[in-house]
């Protein structure tokens, strides 16, 4: 499968715990994005990278969220001290630049 | 800030009829406008896109129109079929390469 992949696909955690998600983009894509989607809503922008540089981070993203793309390939999204409001689908996407934008299957987070 | 508004939020049509979904964007630098279809429990999938140098694009039963002056673009689905039932999202992207999505339209095609 040469598409965007994400792991894990599902994560259930207790409030206050830290979680980390991984995204592997399409190999030749230099742009990588993280979005959050709650039921009935459109994908909400969190942050994006061009190669290893994090170019923008949403103002909605609290300091409990951090993302990295250390070698310009895969990326990780960490949420510290999870809250019930963090429960959502976390979508990763990649793009070769200005153009088509491909989503991964997402990681569904449930915070109990 | 950047914003994309999408209407209607829900749309029901009879099989064979046409469906139209409209979006308005705020960032005048936006120059790429994709549309995504999301089925229940699945990732959004790109179905058609249009760039700012084009006013209309068609792919079989799906077409997209763009009015840059008014900052709005629309998705048109003709001869709707039950398998067209899904949530549709518009998006806009500009010089920052950030994609801003609309809130979605739940389309139901009634057999």
Short synopsis of the structure:
The complex is a heterodimer of chains A (112) and B (111). With 112 residues, chain A is mainly β. Chain A has strands at 5-7, 10-13, 19-24, 31-37, 44-50, 53-57, 65-68, 75-79, 88-95, 102-103, 107-111.
Please tell me about this protein's structure.
The complex is a heterodimer of chains A (112) and B (111). Chain A contains no helices and eleven strands. Chain A has 112 residues and is mostly beta strands. In chain A, strands 2, 4, 5, 6, 9, 10 and 11 form a seven-stranded mixed beta sheet that branches. Chain A has a four-stranded antiparallel beta sheet with strand order 1-3-8-7, with no helix packed on it. The radius of gyration of chain A is 13 Å and the shape is globular. The termini of chain A are far apart. Chain B has 111 residues and is mainly β. Chain B is built from no helices and eleven strands. In chain B, strands 2, 4, 5, 9, 10 and 11 form a six-stranded mixed beta sheet that branches. A five-stranded antiparallel beta sheet of chain B has the order 1-3-8-7-6, with no helix packed on it. In chain B, a hairpin with a 2-residue loop joins β6 and β7 (62-67). Classes of the chains: A mainly beta (112), B mainly beta (111). The interface between A and B is medium-sized, with 26 and 23 residues.
């Amino acid at each position: 499968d040469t598409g965007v992949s994400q792991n894990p696909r599902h994560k259930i955690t207790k409030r206050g715990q830290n979680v980390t998600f991984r995204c592997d983009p399409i190999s030749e894509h230099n742009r990588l994005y993280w979005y959050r989607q709650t039921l009935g809503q459109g994908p909400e922008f969190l942050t994006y990278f061009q190669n290893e540089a994090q170019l923008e981070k949403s103002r909605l993203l609290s300091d409990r969220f951090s993302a990295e793309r250390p070698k310009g390939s895969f990326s990780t999204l960490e949420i510290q001290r999870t809250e019930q409001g963090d429960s959502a689908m976390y979508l990763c996407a990649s793009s070769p630049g200005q153009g088509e934008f491909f989503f991964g299957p997402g990681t569904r987070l449930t915070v109990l | 800030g950047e914003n994309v508004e999408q209407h209607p939020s829900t749309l029901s049509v009879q099989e064979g009829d046409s469906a139209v979904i409209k979006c308005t964007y705020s960032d005048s630098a936006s120059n790429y406008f994709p549309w995504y279809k999301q089925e229940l429990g699945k990732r959004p999938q790109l179905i058609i896109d249009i760039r700012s140098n084009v006013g209309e694009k068609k792919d079989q039963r799906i077409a997209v129109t763009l009015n840059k002056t008014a900052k709005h673009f629309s998705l048109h689905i003709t001869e709707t079929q039950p398998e067209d039932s899904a949530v549709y999202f518009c998006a806009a992207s500009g010089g920052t390469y950030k994609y801003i999505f609309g809130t979605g339209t739940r389309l139901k095609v009634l057999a």
